[in-house]
Every structure is written in C-alpha cells, then in structure tokens.
Amino acid sequence: MYEQIAFYLFSVLTIGLFLVTVLSKNLLYAMTSLAAGMVLVSGFFFLLGADFLGVVQLIVYVGAVMALYAFAMMFFDATKDTKENNTNGSWIFLLGGLTALLLVMMFAAPIFSESVVASYPSVEGATNPQNVGMVLFTKYLIPFEVAAVMLLVAMIAGIILAGKKMDHSLTTNEDNIEVKTLSKEEEL
C-alpha cells in the first residue's frame, strides 16, 4: 500500500520536475529541477529494493548534475533567459516523436519477447554489489576503462579551456576601470 502511494507520488513529482527542466528558460531553474528529478529517480530504485543502484544514482548522477550546475553558474550569465532560434518547430516535433517512438519500441521489445535471459546469472550467496562488480569487471571491463579515459580527457580539456579563457579575459578593478590581464608571454 505504502509502496504504491510512494510510487505514484514519485512519478508525478519526477515528471513535473523534468518538465520544468525541459520547458524552463532560466538556466538555474532547469538545473535545480534536473538535480531534484535525479534524486527522485533514485527513490524508484529504493522502492524496488535495489539499494546499491539507488545509492549509485545519488552519488554519480546527482553529483554530475551538481558539477554541471556549478560550471553553469561560473561560465554563464544565469540571470538571463535563453532564447532559442527554432525556425521550424514541426521538424523538431516530428524528429522528437520518432525518437520517442523508437525508444519505447526498444524498451518494450524485451518485455514481450520470451527469449530474453540474463547473460550472467547471479552467483549463489553473492550480494547485489558483488554481482554488479563481477559483471562490470568481466564482461564490461573494456567499455568501463574507455569511459574512464574519456572522462579524464574531457576533464583535462575543460581545465585547459577554462585556463585559456581566464588568461585573456577582461577584469574590472574597484574603480570600475577595465584593465586587461596580461598573459605570461605579455608580462615578459
């Protein structure tokens, strides 16, 4: 009984928060509702008894959204509303609808198929995190390592781009006089 009430409450709140994310023109509102929606998605995992996945959802995805939130506040003028230049809304609606239909078909196909079986059955006596670890570090070891390298490269590129942007930026001093900051080559 309580699980059903929690499920429907989480469902309505999650859909509402993700709608705010998509429809909001303010960057801070969109990022805040995205983070709150991700927290509520982890609630679904806890309701299903998958505590490990719920904690991973909280740590990984909500942490990533919060990092994105911090970068958005630092690099963009968050007080401005964004204005999109969509000239043809019917194409966007058509492509979005076809993509949604394709995703529904992909996720519904295993439900109606009788030939879907787990490729790695769980080991007797192993807990949920141990089963996830065994599959992750046996079958999915190479994709896991590739994803780690990609994240490392993206982090290094972000640091380099942020450093270049700060070297050539204009700053204002206390008297509101614009002063150009000198790069290391210009100082010498």
Polypeptide structure, described:
- The chain is built from seven helices and two strands; from the N terminus they run ααααααββα.
- The longest helix has 27 residues, at about 140-165.
- The model has no long low-confidence stretch (mean pLDDT about 75).
- The chain has a two-stranded antiparallel ribbon with strand order 1-2.
- With about 190 residues, it is mostly helical.
- The chain is globular and about 55 Å long.
Search tags:
single chain, 188 residues, mainly alpha, Four Helix Bundle (Hemerythrin (Met), subunit A), 2 domains, two-stranded antiparallel sheet, 7 helices, 2 strands
Task: Note the topology.
Elements: H1 2-23, H2 27-47, H3 51-75, H4 89-112, H5 128-136, H6 141-167, E1 170-172, E2 178-180, H7 184-187
Antiparallel strand pairs: 1-2
Rounded mean pLDDT is 77
Strand tally is: 2
Q: Between the first and last Cα atoms, what is the distance in angstroms?
A: 73 Å
Q: What's the CATH C level of the largest domain?
A: Mainly Alpha
Strand arrangement across the biggest beta sheet: 1-2
Enter the CATH topology name of the largest domain.
Four Helix Bundle (Hemerythrin (Met), subunit A)
Please give the count of helices: 7
What is the strand content?
under 5%
Derived from helix and strand composition plus strand pairing, the structural class reads mainly alpha
What's the helical proportion of residues?
over 70%
Shape: globular
Question: How many distinct folded domains?
Answer: 2
